[in-house]
Design goal:
163 residues, mainly alpha, two-stranded antiparallel ribbon, 4 helices
Amino acid sequence: MATEDDKPNAGLIGTATAAGAIAMVAICAVLTALVRSEQADEDHRKNAFADEKPLAELVADQHKALGVGPRWLDQEKGRVQVPIDRAMVNVVKDLQANPQAATAESEPVADADAGAATDDAGAASADAGAEELAAPDAAPEAPKPEKQGDSSNQPPPGEEGAN
């Protein structure tokens, strides 16, 4: 019994694949159109019975409140209601006069070692201060960057505690 070589029909396979892809795109387009049509009908049905009068009144009241001139909300606390357009103009004028006002004030960071015992920490800092006083013209030596990836047992950065 002899075996025959497989001779696939490449043209037939390509045609079937292309026809399947076109059919898949057509099915997706039809389903999308169907879902959108049903959603639009549902939205129309829900909005047909909606009472829009309270919403319109609320929007009108809000627009009227925005157009009112400055007035006191709470005079004891110093709270004033100002129309948004005027408030934006005032903020821009303040920032042009003092650009640093846009930056939040930074709070001092508490020293992490403030409550720690200082057995020889004071001596170490005193020695460092003495060296700086002894050589005021000398520039501090910059730390040398570590070479990474030189040895096979060194983990990549950020994975030191992975083992």
